[in-house]
Design a protein that fits this description.
about 190 residues, alpha+beta, Nucleoside Triphosphate Pyrophosphohydrolase, 2 domains, about 20% helix, about 45% strand
Length: about 190
Protein backbone atom coordinates (compact mmCIF):
# COMPACT_ATOMS: atom_id res chain seq x y z
CA UNK A 1 0.00 0.00 0.00
CA UNK A 2 0.96 3.61 -0.40
CA UNK A 3 0.19 6.80 1.47
CA UNK A 4 -0.26 8.63 -1.84
CA UNK A 5 -3.92 9.14 -2.66
CA UNK A 6 -5.53 10.52 -5.81
CA UNK A 7 -8.69 12.55 -6.32
CA UNK A 8 -10.67 11.10 -9.25
CA UNK A 9 -12.51 14.39 -9.93
CA UNK A 10 -10.93 17.50 -11.43
CA UNK A 11 -10.99 20.65 -9.27
CA UNK A 12 -12.62 22.65 -12.09
CA UNK A 13 -15.11 22.33 -14.96
CA UNK A 14 -14.09 22.31 -18.62
CA UNK A 15 -15.89 25.32 -20.07
CA UNK A 16 -14.68 24.91 -23.67
CA UNK A 17 -12.46 22.68 -25.76
CA UNK A 18 -11.19 23.42 -29.27
CA UNK A 19 -9.06 21.22 -31.53
CA UNK A 20 -6.49 23.55 -33.10
CA UNK A 21 -4.75 21.15 -35.48
CA UNK A 22 -4.68 17.44 -36.24
CA UNK A 23 -2.14 15.33 -38.10
CA UNK A 24 -3.06 11.64 -38.19
CA UNK A 25 -3.29 10.28 -34.66
CA UNK A 26 -1.94 13.48 -33.05
CA UNK A 27 -3.94 16.61 -32.24
CA UNK A 28 -3.34 19.84 -30.37
CA UNK A 29 -6.29 21.27 -28.50
CA UNK A 30 -6.95 24.23 -26.24
CA UNK A 31 -9.17 23.74 -23.19
CA UNK A 32 -10.66 26.54 -21.11
CA UNK A 33 -11.47 25.60 -17.50
CA UNK A 34 -13.54 27.34 -14.84
CA UNK A 35 -12.51 27.10 -11.19
CA UNK A 36 -15.14 27.06 -8.38
CA UNK A 37 -14.46 30.77 -7.66
CA UNK A 38 -15.41 31.62 -11.27
CA UNK A 39 -11.90 32.37 -12.51
CA UNK A 40 -10.79 30.75 -15.75
CA UNK A 41 -7.54 29.29 -17.02
CA UNK A 42 -6.30 27.71 -20.23
CA UNK A 43 -4.60 24.40 -20.91
CA UNK A 44 -2.95 23.14 -24.08
CA UNK A 45 -3.34 19.38 -24.56
CA UNK A 46 -1.70 17.03 -27.05
CA UNK A 47 -4.06 14.17 -27.86
CA UNK A 48 -1.79 11.25 -28.64
CA UNK A 49 -2.11 7.47 -28.76
CA UNK A 50 -0.91 5.28 -25.94
CA UNK A 51 2.23 3.18 -26.25
CA UNK A 52 3.93 0.06 -24.94
CA UNK A 53 7.45 -0.49 -23.55
CA UNK A 54 8.86 -4.00 -23.15
CA UNK A 55 11.85 -5.24 -21.17
CA UNK A 56 12.69 -8.64 -22.64
CA UNK A 57 14.83 -10.78 -20.34
CA UNK A 58 16.47 -13.96 -21.64
CA UNK A 59 17.05 -16.95 -19.37
CA UNK A 60 20.73 -15.95 -19.03
CA UNK A 61 19.72 -12.51 -17.65
CA UNK A 62 20.44 -10.49 -20.80
CA UNK A 63 18.04 -7.95 -22.21
CA UNK A 64 17.66 -6.18 -25.56
CA UNK A 65 18.00 -2.48 -26.22
CA UNK A 66 17.44 -0.76 -29.54
CA UNK A 67 19.07 2.39 -30.84
CA UNK A 68 17.55 4.68 -33.40
CA UNK A 69 17.71 8.28 -34.52
CA UNK A 70 15.14 10.47 -32.77
CA UNK A 71 14.38 13.26 -35.20
CA UNK A 72 12.78 15.63 -32.65
CA UNK A 73 15.80 15.29 -30.33
CA UNK A 74 18.47 15.51 -33.04
CA UNK A 75 20.41 12.47 -31.82
CA UNK A 76 20.21 8.72 -31.37
CA UNK A 77 18.64 7.14 -28.31
CA UNK A 78 19.05 3.76 -26.65
CA UNK A 79 15.67 2.41 -25.57
CA UNK A 80 13.84 -0.75 -24.66
CA UNK A 81 11.71 -2.07 -27.55
CA UNK A 82 8.58 0.07 -27.66
CA UNK A 83 5.83 1.17 -29.97
CA UNK A 84 2.56 2.99 -30.50
CA UNK A 85 -0.74 1.23 -29.96
CA UNK A 86 -3.23 1.13 -32.81
CA UNK A 87 -6.66 2.64 -32.08
CA UNK A 88 -8.55 0.22 -29.82
CA UNK A 89 -5.62 -2.21 -29.57
CA UNK A 90 -5.21 -4.14 -26.32
CA UNK A 91 -1.91 -3.06 -24.68
CA UNK A 92 -0.64 -6.63 -24.21
CA UNK A 93 -1.42 -7.47 -27.84
CA UNK A 94 0.42 -4.31 -28.90
CA UNK A 95 3.40 -5.24 -26.73
CA UNK A 96 3.53 -8.70 -28.28
CA UNK A 97 3.36 -7.22 -31.80
CA UNK A 98 6.02 -4.58 -31.15
CA UNK A 99 8.46 -6.99 -29.45
CA UNK A 100 8.31 -9.25 -32.50
CA UNK A 101 8.66 -6.36 -34.99
CA UNK A 102 11.49 -4.50 -33.26
CA UNK A 103 13.47 -7.24 -31.54
CA UNK A 104 12.46 -10.42 -33.36
CA UNK A 105 11.31 -11.98 -30.09
CA UNK A 106 8.21 -13.80 -28.89
CA UNK A 107 7.61 -14.16 -25.15
CA UNK A 108 5.58 -16.91 -23.48
CA UNK A 109 5.43 -15.08 -20.14
CA UNK A 110 4.33 -11.46 -19.71
CA UNK A 111 4.17 -9.40 -16.52
CA UNK A 112 2.68 -5.92 -16.38
CA UNK A 113 4.98 -3.32 -14.86
CA UNK A 114 2.20 -0.75 -14.67
CA UNK A 115 1.37 2.41 -16.53
CA UNK A 116 3.10 5.79 -16.73
CA UNK A 117 2.42 9.15 -18.34
CA UNK A 118 5.28 10.83 -20.17
CA UNK A 119 4.33 14.44 -19.60
CA UNK A 120 1.39 16.33 -18.11
CA UNK A 121 0.19 17.80 -21.41
CA UNK A 122 -0.07 14.54 -23.41
CA UNK A 123 -3.12 12.27 -23.14
CA UNK A 124 -1.51 8.94 -24.11
CA UNK A 125 -0.27 6.56 -21.43
CA UNK A 126 2.65 4.15 -21.50
CA UNK A 127 2.04 0.47 -20.68
CA UNK A 128 5.18 -1.25 -19.38
CA UNK A 129 5.87 -5.00 -19.55
CA UNK A 130 8.45 -7.56 -18.54
CA UNK A 131 8.73 -10.26 -21.24
CA UNK A 132 10.30 -13.66 -20.41
CA UNK A 133 10.56 -17.19 -21.80
CA UNK A 134 11.74 -15.74 -25.09
CA UNK A 135 12.22 -17.33 -28.48
CA UNK A 136 13.66 -15.72 -31.60
CA UNK A 137 11.62 -15.07 -34.76
CA UNK A 138 12.10 -12.95 -37.88
CA UNK A 139 12.52 -9.27 -37.06
CA UNK A 140 10.36 -6.86 -39.12
CA UNK A 141 10.92 -3.20 -38.16
CA UNK A 142 8.71 -0.51 -39.69
CA UNK A 143 10.07 1.49 -42.66
CA UNK A 144 10.82 4.52 -40.45
CA UNK A 145 12.89 2.26 -38.16
CA UNK A 146 15.39 1.24 -40.86
CA UNK A 147 18.30 2.74 -38.91
CA UNK A 148 17.42 0.78 -35.75
CA UNK A 149 20.11 -1.47 -34.33
CA UNK A 150 19.78 -3.99 -31.51
CA UNK A 151 22.17 -4.79 -28.70
CA UNK A 152 21.96 -7.57 -26.11
CA UNK A 153 23.56 -6.91 -22.73
CA UNK A 154 23.09 -8.01 -19.13
CA UNK A 155 19.95 -6.50 -17.59
CA UNK A 156 22.01 -5.14 -14.68
CA UNK A 157 24.22 -3.21 -17.13
CA UNK A 158 21.19 -1.74 -18.89
CA UNK A 159 19.72 -0.67 -15.54
CA UNK A 160 23.04 0.90 -14.54
CA UNK A 161 23.16 2.74 -17.89
CA UNK A 162 19.61 4.01 -17.29
CA UNK A 163 20.32 5.19 -13.75
CA UNK A 164 23.59 6.89 -14.85
CA UNK A 165 21.80 8.82 -17.58
CA UNK A 166 23.23 6.95 -20.56
CA UNK A 167 19.66 5.96 -21.45
CA UNK A 168 17.67 9.19 -21.59
CA UNK A 169 14.36 7.88 -22.91
CA UNK A 170 12.08 8.33 -19.87
CA UNK A 171 9.73 5.42 -20.60
CA UNK A 172 12.72 3.11 -21.06
CA UNK A 173 14.35 4.25 -17.81
CA UNK A 174 11.11 3.62 -15.91
CA UNK A 175 10.53 0.23 -17.56
CA UNK A 176 14.10 -0.91 -16.80
CA UNK A 177 13.90 0.23 -13.17
CA UNK A 178 10.54 -1.47 -12.61
CA UNK A 179 11.74 -4.70 -14.28
CA UNK A 180 14.87 -4.68 -12.12
CA UNK A 181 12.78 -4.21 -8.99
CA UNK A 182 10.40 -7.01 -10.06
CA UNK A 183 13.38 -9.33 -10.55
CA UNK A 184 15.05 -8.37 -7.27
CA UNK A 185 17.93 -6.38 -8.80
CA UNK A 186 16.91 -3.10 -7.10
Amino acid sequence: MTALDHDPKPPYQVAASEELVRDGNLALRRDRVRWPDGSEAGFRVVDAPSSVFMVPVHQDGTTVLVRQWRHAWGHTAWEVPAGTLEAGEDPLAGAQRELEEEAGLVARRWTSLGVTHGTAIVTGSQHLYLARDLSRVHRAPEAYERDMIMRELPLGEAVDDALRGEIQHAGSVTALARAARMLGLL
